[in-house]
Amino acid sequence: MNRLWVSTLLVAGVASVASAGIINGTFDSGLDGWTVSGGARVVNDDFGLPFSPSGAPAAGVIISWGGSWDGPSGSISQIVTGVTGEQILSGELFAAARYSDSERPASVDVLWNGTVVQSLLVPSEDKWAADFPWVSFSVPVTATGNDELKVNFGVRFAEWTWTAVDNLAITPEPASLMLVALGLPLLRRRR
User: Fold this and answer.
1) Domain with 85 in it
2) Tens digits of per-residue pLDDT, 13-37?
3) Which of 3, 55, 172, 188 is the most exposed place for a label (fewest CB within 10 A)?
């Protein structure tokens, strides 16, 4: 009976980790769950932005002849709760800028508790958004149960600039899952 109770708690713990974490990281519900600043909004195939590998929608900033030299032109953020320990933060990023020289780059920075953990910086080129790829990322982060996830979109006065993010997710690091998996058989041996 005791073994069954402990096993149930372990499975429930893994299930709760799977359901906790980033709210609306696929942006299927618009920007619900996100704090928005600047020009950040939901973007689909706006002005030639290619769909993310898993499809639309995404969040980002698309602008013509606008932006900022001093900082992001828009951002989204949220507090990630209910997740602790070593985790994997993953998602898809897009940055492209159309201009005749490379001096007006587009960028997307992903920050975890104020530290940049992933960055995509693309120099401007005389190309359209469809000529640039989406970039997948997966990085380790340490979660405390109350962590800020922020995405900054950098736009710097190109003829057109496209920046976007999609499919943000946080999952337990594989080694953490392995420890849970190894613990279940040990429960049987104790008896």
Assistant:
1) 2-190
2) 443 444 479 999 999 999 999 999 9
3) 188
